[in-house]
Amino acid sequence: MEDLREILGRLGHVDVKTYLNSGNVIFTSRRRDPRELASEIEHALDDTLGMTVRCVIRTDAELSAVIE
Prior knowledge:
This protein is an alpha+beta fold. It has a single domain, classed as 2-Layer Sandwich (Alpha-Beta Plaits). Helix content is about 50%, strand content about 15%. It is built from 3 helices and 2 strands; from the N terminus they run αββαα. The protein has helices spanning about 1-10, 35-50, 60-65, and strands spanning about 15-20, 25-30. The protein has a two-stranded antiparallel sheet. The protein is globular and about 35 Å long.
């Protein structure tokens, strides 16, 4: 999880926190397009760790809707 936090930090995201060892990450980003953001992270994981991983981005609003 430390590698994952570092990778997202290097991409310019802040307040990066992982949830247990689940691969879930909570962070703040200036980027607003979830698809572009997911693609950026997927490429960084592949380039850095050699891992092909599918990323799904959920916004604050989407998570709040699930909770409600």
